[in-house]
């Protein structure tokens, strides 16, 4: 419960919206998955006459997890101490399942609580954090494996025309098709734009090592994400240690709790660590991972959710960049007004609006609702 005389979180309400993808034949693919929609779970935290917004991307069951396990803990909490509430939530979900959906649910609530605090204080969220940067560099991300060469080239060229100096595509679903796909990408963006690839854990370690050399030599690829499953720490380390110079190995988007990040670092599995603010405990979680990365002198890259990551990762000392993911960019543009501005290949949080600076476009979002009722 809150201290005497302080404002309290009055209630949470939870919504979920499922937006179909715009990929060919209503689907998108990477190295290991096919999907037809993206679901945003949106949390609103109310208190002191204000409303904080937080969200994650996951199954609609995350919404019911928030309602059943987290809302009772948040209600009545001191709204000026979101991190304390998040620590209580993480402790309380131990038996319900902390990694995975549990951490995603906590992340959405944590973000909403930080947004609420910022709005009550009349400050942009970024101003509450130990800011190191005024913007977050981005890389365009999409390039799904079921895209035609023409669509692939159009997408990456579009990012380059927006001033984004680095692009990433999915690979390794059908490895034999990747050389032609990468040639189309390199031709579309020219020689000065960095090209990244993401296998989503599709390859075996020695197979990944072979492709690492081909990617680097053939198309000057400088980032190879999850060449093997990030759970295969030995395989990740093999590719990192024996891969070509100039090709960074990255993982961390599926790290939910601090030990997940520690495991990747201690194993020597990555050149650059990734963290997803909507999975690893929200704002509170990212601040912890940032300290971990700084202490081990390793860069941290933001995984997706650009509307909130643009604020939070300004506080990351060893910031590398942010994944400006096609699906999340689409969903957030449907659901929210007030998205951070893109310029010079970076996102800049809006310092003239309190909190995240976001408002929900309810009429636009409503057709996609799969959970909750607006109150």
Structural features, described:
With 375 residues, the protein is an alpha/beta fold. The protein has two domains: 11-122 and 363-371, Enolase-like, N-terminal domain (Enolase-like, domain 1, 2-Layer Sandwich); 127-359, Enolase-like C-terminal domain (TIM Barrel). The chain is built from 14 helices and 18 strands. It has helices spanning 61-74, 82-92, 94-97, 101-121, 125-128, 149-161, 178-189, 205-219, 233-242, 258-266, 282-295, 306-312, 326-335, 362-365, and strands spanning 11-20, 28-29, 34-35, 37-47, 50-57, 136-142, 166-170, 194-198, 221-225, 248-251, 272-275, 299-302, 319-325, 336-337, 341-343, 346-348, 359-360, 369-371. The strands form four sheets. Strands 6-7-8-9-10-11-12-13 form an eight-stranded parallel β-barrel, surrounded by eight helices. A four-stranded antiparallel sheet has the order 5-4-1-18. The protein has a two-stranded antiparallel ribbon with strand order 2-3. Helix 2 (82-92) packs antiparallel against helix 4, helix 6 (149-161) packs parallel to helix 7 and helix 8 (205-219) runs parallel beside helix 9.
Q: Would you kindly provide a brief summary of this structure?
A:
The chain is of the alpha/beta class and 375 residues long.
CATH class of the largest domain: Alpha Beta
Question: Would you identify the CATH H-level superfamily of the largest domain?
Answer: Enolase-like C-terminal domain
- Total separate domains: 2
| Oligomeric status | single chain
Into which percent range does the helicity of residues fall?
25-40%
The name of the CATH architecture of the largest domain is Alpha-Beta Barrel
Placed side by side, the strands forming the largest sheet appear as 6-7-8-9-10-11-12-13
* Poorly predicted segments: none
User: Which descriptor suits the 3D outline?
Assistant: globular
Q: What's the number of helices?
A: 14
Which radius of gyration do the C-alpha atoms yield?
20 Å
CATH fold assignment of the largest domain: TIM Barrel
Q: Largest sheet, described in full?
A: 8 strands, parallel, barrel
Q: How far apart are the termini? A: 25 Å
Class by alpha and beta content:
alpha/beta
């Amino acid at each position: 419960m809150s201290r005497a005389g302080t404002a309290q979180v009055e209630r949470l309400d939870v919504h979920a919206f499922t937006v179909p993808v715009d990929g060919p034949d209503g689907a998108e693919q990477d190295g290991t998955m096919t999907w037809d929609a993206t679901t945003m779970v949106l949390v609103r935290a109310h208190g002191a006459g204000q409303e904080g917004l937080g969200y994650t991307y996951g199954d609609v069951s995350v919404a019911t997890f928030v309602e059943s396990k987290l809302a009772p803990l948040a209600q009545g909490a001191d709204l000026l101490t979101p991190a304390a509430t998040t620590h209580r939530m993480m402790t309380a979900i131990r038996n319900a399942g902390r990694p995975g959906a549990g951490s995603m649910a906590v992340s959405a609530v944590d973000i909403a609580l930080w947004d609420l605090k910022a709005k009550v204080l009349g400050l942009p969220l970024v101003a509450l954090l130990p800011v190191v940067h005024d913007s977050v560099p981005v890389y365009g991300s999409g390039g799904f494996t079921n895209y035609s060469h023409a669509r692939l080239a159009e997408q990456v060229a579009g990012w380059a025309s927006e001033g984004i100096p680095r692009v990433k595509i999915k690979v390794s679903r059908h490895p034999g098709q990747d050389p032609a796909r990468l040639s189309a990408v390199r031709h579309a963006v020219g020689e000065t734009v960095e090209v990244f690839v993401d296998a989503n854990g599709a390859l075996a370690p020695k197979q990944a090592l072979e492709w690492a050399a081909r990617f680097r030599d053939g198309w000057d690829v400088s980032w190879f994400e999850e060449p093997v499953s990030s759970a295969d720490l030995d395989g990740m380390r093999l590719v990192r240690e024996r891969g070509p110079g100039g090709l960074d190995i990255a993982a961390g988007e599926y790290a939910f709790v601090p030990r997940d990040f520690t495991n990747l670092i201690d194993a020597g599995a990555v050149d650059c660590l990734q963290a997803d603010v909507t999975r690893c405990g929200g704002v509170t979680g990212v601040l912890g991972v940032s300290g971990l990365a700084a202490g081990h002198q390793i860069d941290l890259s933001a995984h997706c959710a650009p509307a909130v990551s643009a604020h939070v990762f300004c506080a990351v000392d060893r910031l590398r960049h942010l994944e400006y993911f096609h699906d999340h960019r689409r969903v957030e543009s449907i659901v929210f007004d007030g998205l951070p501005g893109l310029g010079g290949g970076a996102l800049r949080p809006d310092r003239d609006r309190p909190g995240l600076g976001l408002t929900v476009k309810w009429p636009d979002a409503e057709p996609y609702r799969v959970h909750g009722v607006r109150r």
